[in-house]
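G., the chain you wanted modeled:
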Amino acid sequence: MRHLVIAIMVLALASGTGDTLAAEEPPAVDTFSPTGSLAEPRAGHTATLLPDGRVLVVGGSGGPSHLRASAEVWDPATGTFGPAGSLLVPRSGHTATLLSDGRVLVVGGWDGHPSASAELWDPATATFGSAGSLAEKRVAFTASLLPDDRVLVVGGSGGPNRILGAAELWDSTTGMFDPAGSLDRPRDHHAASRLPDGRVLVTGGTTRRERARSASAELWDPTTGMFDPTGSLREARADHTATALADGGVLVIGGMGDAVGGRGAHTFLSSAEVWDAATASFVAAGSLQEARVEHTATPLPDGRVLVVGGVGRVGRRFDDLASAEVWDPATRTFAPAGSLTQGRSYHTATPLPDGRVLVIGGEDSDGALASAEVRNPSAAQDDGEGGSRCDD
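Predicted structure as tokens:
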């Protein structure tokens, strides 16, 4: 049950090594290949694609009471990690947002308690500096980059029995946080997706009432600075993923739902649904071959979405999954997409400019991981067979 205590303080907390991908021996179709190793095992970290193609890895946890302050950068030219400075405050479960000038805004998270601090990483110096402070300490929240380079921070937990409804906006011109309205339903462990028109869709999460998972969704409008309800998920869920699609829709996958039978009971979800921007409603979008939570969902260049790892039920126990699946928007089905070299959850998956996907760190039953893997773009050329068709 180690993975299931994801409520307020998120982030539970082996290392592996890997060699640089050899040019003369390209990875086979539908396989993940090792690519270097982190200097420190970490889970609950962030990974941000930089304009030059490198990936910045920040913070995370190496185990109980082992919060990371260090940052590392993965270089696609060498397939190795190098140092990239240190946070002012060690943290896990934070957010990291790339700004238009190449800096990275790190907000909140867990520093032994929910944190209100924010920091900016400067690529010119590979150092972190203070970036103001949230009005509310928070963890298990979301942060979304807006077209004008402001960052919208929504919900989260401020501590035991403190699920937040307030939203805040970080302004890049002032370096300060300002109020940005309040959710109709306070929530944490939700997901947020920026739409093409600049609005932000907030889905699911855990609500104040008996810590039940929510099916509600809300839209934040930058012109009014307010949230409004917009349809309802077909299944209440938290700790799911929500991926913006090319057609303006949002794909919601998996997560944890409320089991029939009582307060606090839960179940892993295999269902997926799409928010349709034209109708502001959710429609069924197929079923995962393995129900999972704390997975990643990464958009691919061809419009499909790659789902990797997470925690799933294996027989009568819970385990970290090594499996990957790909969702096809044309058929609304999931199909197998290879397997990681080791199962993991609380990891990151970053799409690279060349079509590969970089999977970093996370944890398995032995603790935090230092290993990283790359999925080759040729793996996206499967025939889509074996998926589960959905009926709207």
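DSSP finds no helices and 36 strands in the chain.

Shout if anything looks off.
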